[in-house]
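Much of our argument rests on the idea that a fold can be written as discrete symbols. Part of our work consisted of pairing the sequence of a single chain with a tokenised description of its backbone. We regard such an encoding as a compact summary of how the chain folds. The amino acid sequence and the backbone structure tokens for this protein are reproduced below.
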Amino acid sequence: MNDQAGGQPGSQTTDTITQELTRLYDQLGNTNWNEALIGLLSKVLIPAILGSLALLAAYFVAKLFSKRVTTVLCSKIDETLGRFIGKTVFYGILITAGTMVLPKLGIQVSGIMAILATAGFAIGLAFQGTLSNFSAGILLLVFRPFKVGYSVVVAGVSGKVNEIEIFTTTLDTSDNRRLILPNSSIAGTTIENISFHAHRRVDVNVWVEYASSLDATRQALTECVQLMSAWIVPGEGRGYQIMLNNLGTHAVEWSIRIWVDRDCFSAAREALIGNVKVVFDRYHIGIPHLQTQVSHAATRPIDQQPKPAASPPAIAIPGVHANHERSVPLRPRVRGEGQRR
């Protein structure tokens, strides 16, 4: 009886499994596969294809609108602001299209937003650096300390501003290198805007020998400046200056200052330095260069070197030894001294 009682649960489980498999087989046999396939196409595949096409169309529409907005704003308002608003329009259209298409595919956007809102604190800590770059980018676009196309020195590097984005700013160096700087590093440091003013001053220091006449030197420097008349910007506070700066240790120091357009600063400086050399050669005015003279003392053979002077003889003093130590008589030891009482 115990064996029969113990075998009943196992036989019941086997019968249950057999019945379930038989029922599933009957259902599969009675299933209309055409209707199932049509349902799969109508509920899953067709919405997925339409959603993908809608997102692709939204991408091209966003790109077209972004380009149009950027072109209009760059031509009529400002290039920096135009590029930023163009990118904002592009991403805004894509996000709007995504929120409209995803629910059609059975993906609830509200649930995703709820999860993001719940994890907002953790996300904020994880993206702390990114958010600081975003806020710095907004400040750069609002206050605009520099614009696209300006030459600047920021964060220890110099270059021409190519683009100001939401998180980064792109610079192109003079040797054609692309630098991508985070906006937070730019907003938190000193910004040197080289292209802000229309005119820049070229300063060239010139050193002249003391043998040259001051009048002749000033005349030669004036001729150098006159050769740059096509570069110099006239007007109040502009033009040129020739100044006697200092009487140095080895030379007389002069300074030439000319005002030129900011776009031709480097070329004007190079041309001015070349004119100084050419005119000074014509006037026979020397430009000193520092020289160091090193003198070596002549050495004599060892047998010819002078001998050191002999020390004077010691004077004998009564009561003093030769080693200058005074003799001290010994005191006789008393009997019992040093013993413990």
Notes: Residues 34-118 form a domain with the Helix Hairpins fold (CATH 1.10.287). The first strand starts at residue 151 and ends at 154. Strands lie at 151-154, 157-164, 168-172, 178-182, 192-193, 199-208, 240-247, 252-261.
